[in-house]
Amino acid sequence: MGDLPEALSQYEKSHELQKEHLPPNHPDSANYYNCIGEVQRIMGHYSESLYFHGRALSIRTLALPPNHPYLAASHNNIGLVYQKMHEYSKALRSYQQALEIKKITLPPNHPSLAASYNNSASVYYENGDYLEALSWYKRALNIQTKALPPNHPELATSYNNIGLVYKMMREYSKALLSFERSLEIRKLALHQNHPDVATCYNNIGAVYCNRNEYSKALTSYKKSLEIRKIALSPNHPKLANSYHTIASLYDHMGDYSEALSYYEKSLEIKRTVFSPNDSKLVTSYNSVGAMYCKMGEYSKALSSYQQALEIMEMTLPSNHPDLSASYNSIGSVYRSMNEYSNALLYYEKYVEISEETLSPSHPSMVSCYNNIGLMYYSMGDHLKTLSFYEKGLQVSYEALPSNHPDVAALCNNIGSVYKSMREYSKALQYYEKYLEISQGTHSPNHLSMVSTYNDIGSVYYDTGEYSKALSWYQRTLEIQTKALPPNHVDLATSYDRIGSVYYKMGKHTEALSSYEQCLEIRKIAIPSNHPDLATTCNDIGSLCRSRGEYSKALLYFEKVLEISQETLPLNDLSLTTSYNNIGWLYKNRGEYLKALPYYEKDLEICLTTHGANHPDLAASYNEIGSIHRNIGEYTKALSYYEKGLKISQDALPPNHPDLATSYSNIGSMYYKMGQFLKARLSYERALEIRKIAIPPNQSELAASYRNIGMVYESMSKYSEALSYYTMSHDILKKLLPASQPHIATLKKSIDNVKKKL
């Protein structure tokens, strides 16, 4: 506040002395009242200011001619106070009275008339009447253009004001031209590092940001910051504002670590300038919390949000809307941490304040219902989620215009719930409502639209309509490529989705290209041990495996395992996928001894996590059994196959096809060990199950007949062997071309048996 209280005291003392020598309505008294009123206004004491300016006006009205310039000044001062009090109609009336006097006493192009036009324009601007504001600012500029030199600073101010109006009207090209003209004048009229030049760069950056031209916005914002670093003290609040603005841009760009760095610089300055409990710190704490939340560092996010809350609880009434917003933020963090009881506690405080201070159909209630719905969605309770979303939607229909963004957002959220419930037609219905509303306020290629384009793409993906899914995902990518930096993480996600669609469509070359583009971006944009990198490597590994490129697949699966081992507990169940994938590759390359440790590690984790009788263990035992069979360790193989069978018998229906596979594997081990009777019994049990579980004339039946035939042949029971070989051959003839090697092998076995009869 500087020396304002002292100035006020001096004015009041001088006025008391003056009253002893002057009559009550002397014009000099009006001057003192005017000065006291101005100091009170600057100090934010608007009622007191209004009182003293009113006294000054009363005296001048009595003492001066009706069109005296001092009367215009008094009306103008009163208008300034009313504007500060947001009493815009009274402010306009006072400004108009000042203007009428000036029109009578001044030439038509006098700069003081331009000042009056600017005052009225600023009221219209603050009140959201941008067309009127533009009209009045242009009148002011018209006078200034005639009355002032071409590079006068006041011209720059007018161009700046007009630019601000155009920005609010979303006429960004016109706004940019006005701001650039203002910058051009200020560069000539002021020195290069003047704070007003910094303001121009800041405004230009804001327009580029609104146009999604983030790299240009960043350049302008950083120019503004560099000037303020030179022109202002190190702890000046405007420096804090610059850091905050740049942080917000990095946030939009998805570069959360950079955003956090700038938010923290802004907070550091504010901590130096303001007291620990000053409300000006709240925004910074909340912004830092939001970044930690987006980075998944929820404990740090919680700490920042709670620091903001502590200040607000000390400085605001218990039912203040800002407190309710803070409770909402903390509830959302707890929801992300899956601490739903804590989340509910804060959401209930949020709702309590909202219901106490707002009407049931107030627009803010939409946010209440939406956030509680989100929490239930996170808990997987889709019916409760729908209940709250639909309440929110009902309020939004009553309280908001039909094309309001909150209406669109709720339609989108309801669509997501129906998608999770696999009610895809309903999901599409709500997504289409969202698009219909949003396209009234945004162009179809606006960055805000891509989330729903992705949701629609995922519906078509889930329903197997891959061409439609691809179209929506590619539309998203096209928008992101224009709006985002080339290594933005969202671009990687889009390439990943497109790769998945191509994979489903069997277009492996295109899928691989998309996955590799995804991987290149993620290598740059996220830490080297980030789980998303593992996901991409796993996708590429799976694709290479399906193309028979086992060496390449192995490299990617090993990278997945490396990342997973760094980021997960040693016995985390997610690791089993990597162990299985690597084991499978080594097995199929014939490197059985290398495969075995990976399958054993998989089994170890499953036993630790699930216990000894979990159904998933059957697959692990069978894989290890197959490795021992391939390296000729039949006794060990038999032991693992039998363990697998026991678990499957407990977990599956008695005639499940997987049981047939287990019996067949066990039969093959007895056969290899020369225990033909046991082999035959196992093979026959497999056959019995397959006759019940699968349609006739399937290759699995043919295999069972052939296996039993082999046992009978080994037991020298050639007639029985011929019978089973023939049944196997009859099935395969219907399934395979005559030139197929399996048929030739079986035909040879039949001929050999016939010779032995």
TrEMBL record:
Subcellular location: Cytoplasm, Cytoskeleton
Biased composition (Basic and acidic residues): 12-23
InterPro entries with a match to the protein in the record: TPR-like_helical_dom_sf, TPR_rpt
Pfam families to which the protein is assigned, alphabetical: TPR_10 (PF13374), TPR_12 (PF13424), TPR_8 (PF13181)
Protein name: Kinesin light chain
Keywords per UniProt: Cytoplasm, Cytoskeleton, Microtubule, Motor protein, Repeat, TPR repeat
GO cellular component annotations of the record: kinesin complex; microtubule
SUPFAM superfamilies the UniProt entry points to: HCP-like, TPR-like
SMART domains, sorted: TPR
The keyword Flavoprotein is assigned to this record: no
Organism: Rotaria magnacalcarata
SUBUNIT field: Oligomeric complex composed of two heavy chains and two light chains.
Record lineage: Eukaryota, Metazoa, Spiralia, Gnathifera, Rotifera
TPR repeats: 72-105, 114-147, 156-189, 198-231, 240-273, 282-315, 324-357, 366-399, 408-441, 450-483, 492-525, 534-567, 576-609, 618-651, 660-693, 702-735
Protein origin, superkingdom: Eukaryota
Principal location class: cytoplasm
Annotated family: Belongs to the kinesin light chain family.
Chain's role: Kinesin is a microtubule-associated force-producing protein that play a role in organelle transport.
Spans annotated as Disordered: 1-26
